[in-house]
Design goal:
Number of strands: 3
Strand order of the largest sheet: 1-2-3
CATH superfamily: NAD(P)-binding Rossmann-like Domain
Number of helices: 3
Shape: elongated
Oligomer: single chain
Largest sheet: 3 strands, parallel
CATH class: Alpha Beta
Helix content: 25-40%
Strand content: 5-15%
Order of helices and strands: EHEHHE
Number of domains: 1
CATH architecture: 3-Layer(aba) Sandwich
CATH topology: Rossmann fold
């Protein structure tokens, strides 16, 4: 892999990688679940070079793809422990943390940013 030693790889997946919460999303969930294996494998392969590899699992997040006032929003909101959609800034904060020196010992794991949807 052509990457400088000591870098960070942060994959973006979905909270649906670990829970198929509704019918009709099996293929989507499968593709996101595959990122779990990729993240863990790369963490092992690249760890000796000081490269950390992690995965952020966003839950329902207000976006063009899934607006907090969209057709399925209320049904999704009812599954979220905190009762509201996340914002893009919530995902950015998780990525910023994982890219920081404070996360230098965190590698090969997923970070759920889903408001407790998978709790």
């Amino acid at each position: 892999m052509h990457m400088a030693d000591g870098g960070r790889i942060i994959n973006i997946g979905s909270c649906l990688a670990n829970r198929v919460a509704m019918p009709g999303i099996a293929v989507y969930a499968m593709t996101k679940s595959a990122l779990n294996a990729l993240t863990r494998g790369l963490a092992r392969d690249l760890g000796p070079r000081g490269i950390t590899v992690n995965l952020v699992h966003p839950g329902p997040t207000n976006s063009d793809m899934n607006p907090e006032d969209g057709e399925q929003a209320e049904a999704q909101r009812q599954m979220i422990a905190v009762g509201h959609y996340g914002q893009p800034e919530d995902i950015a904060a998780a990525v910023t943390f994982l890219a920081s020196p404070a996360a230098g010992q965190i590698s090969g794991t997923g970070l759920d940013v889903d408001g407790g949807l998978n709790a």
